[in-house]
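[Discussion] Sanity-checking designs against the backbone

I'm trying to build intuition for which residues belong where. Below is a structure token string of 293 positions. I'd appreciate it if someone posts a full sequence so I can compare it with mine line by line.
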């Protein structure tokens, strides 16, 4: 019932840039009660690196079997993906940056490792964002380099946490209440290495319920730079057009106040009859949408 009575619009683009193959992946699944969105960036330069794809498949499949937005659940999903990459037989160790978002269509939580990025825009401004797990980001925090230098800094991909490593320690967020018109943006280094944060902010500030138009505007900025060595780039946006409202809250209100009602009084008679006329929740068939790229 939650998915049916909410409106989350997901759009994305994922391209190889000037590389031979695209090792970025984005995938999501929208169940009746929960949804999961995952972006991953294969770290190695090998053209046949399947680390990001394998990570997303692992997270999506395990989320479907036990959907939840608990902190423990998100941490478990990321650790399962890490274990799969560590155990995969390959002539080159599989590694990937990853960010996962889970939601019950009212609230959300995210977890990440590496330098894929998440931003939540609320009212046209940045409400929440991740920070890279890189040497360059550490230098920013120590005020050794300015923040806008990270996009070209030589240590921007020198990561201290990522999928495919021992002693894996992802970051898990607190639970975040979603509001209508919120926008969740997920993107890989091919985007943030070429598009300034201020430019992203300008696009999302002007976004007007046009998810695909927002994607197109950011890609136009990226391609207008004509970078000679453009990395794989992936950008996904989730527009929160309608948040699920729990009808049980009205039922609780009716239960809490019914014993105080004098049905002969005019205001109370109208209130009780209005509550009684609310439609009962019906059982919906379980369904889901799943998409990988």
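Best answer:
Here's mine. Compare freely.
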């Amino acid at each position: 019932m939650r998915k049916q009575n909410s409106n989350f619009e997901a759009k994305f683009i994922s391209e190889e840039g000037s590389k031979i193959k695209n090792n970025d992946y984005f995938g999501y699944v929208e169940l009746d009660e929960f949804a999961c969105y995952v972006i991953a960036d294969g770290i190695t330069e090998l053209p046949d690196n399947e680390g990001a794809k394998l990570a997303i498949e692992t997270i999506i499949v395990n989320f479907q079997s036990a959907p939840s937005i608990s902190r423990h659940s998100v941490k478990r999903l990321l650790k399962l993906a890490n274990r799969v990459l560590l155990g995969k037989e390959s002539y080159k160790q599989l590694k990937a940056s990853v960010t996962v978002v889970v939601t019950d269509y009212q609230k959300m939580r995210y977890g990440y490792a590496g330098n894929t990025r998440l931003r939540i825009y609320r009212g046209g401004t940045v409400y929440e964002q991740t920070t890279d797990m890189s040497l360059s980001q550490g230098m920013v925090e120590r005020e050794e380099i300015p923040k806008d230098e990270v996009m070209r800094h030589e240590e921007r991909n020198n990561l201290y946490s990522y999928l495919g490593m021992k002693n894996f320690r992802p970051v898990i967020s607190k639970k975040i209440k979603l509001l209508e018109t919120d926008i969740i943006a997920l993107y890989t280094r091919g985007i943030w290495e070429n598009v300034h944060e201020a430019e992203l902010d300008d696009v999302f500030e002007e976004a007007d319920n046009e998810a695909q138009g927002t994607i197109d505007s950011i890609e136009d900025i990226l391609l207008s730079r004509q970078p000679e060595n453009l990395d794989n780039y992936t950008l996904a946006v989730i527009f929160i057009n309608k948040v699920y409202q729990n009808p049980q809250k009205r039922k609780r209100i009716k239960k809490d106040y019914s014993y105080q009602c004098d049905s002969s009084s005019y205001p109370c008679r109208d209130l009780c009859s209005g509550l009684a006329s609310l439609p009962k929740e019906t059982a919906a068939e379980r369904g889901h949408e799943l998409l990988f790229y």
